[in-house]
Description:
This is Electron transfer DM13. The protein is built from one helix and eleven strands. By secondary structure, it is an alpha+beta fold.
Amino acid sequence: MATKKRRRGAVSAVLIAVTAVLGIGLYWFQPWKLWQDDTVREALPVAGPAPASSRSAPAGPRTVAEGALISHEHTTTGTARIIRLPDGSHTLRLEGLDTSSGPDLRVWITDAPVKEGTAGWRVFDDGKHLSLGRLKGNKGDQNYPIPAGVDPAEYTSITIWCDRFDVSFGAAPLTAV
């Protein structure tokens, strides 16, 4: 009888441990996000009028750098553009973005080279990088303001970065226009 009780207690302990590990694993990996899409359709940002000291500045937004997104850990397509607004501020714009959802995705501008294949998955946190915030959605058009005082010319690429697993979902080299 005591053996039966011990066996039941052991089975219960194993079931509790398996349930805890499964719960933690589901929270950490969030596999359901692979089948969820969040589409964002933001318009091109419009800033206030240009300051009087820069009357020669263009009247509307102007692309200063751009590049096509390539896939890394997950299939990723679209275009990244750094746009200078009439007031002198800059915004990173993702257009036609299509990637997977994932846990803790961020948009970074970096000075890392964009490499194809698995060689490019983990290079973006090795050098200079700046997080522009959480990825707003895994599909569509979206804008990420670049903070004042940051020189976009110091950054040569962008990445959709999974902070939880330290891996790039996709990236784009930025070429001056």
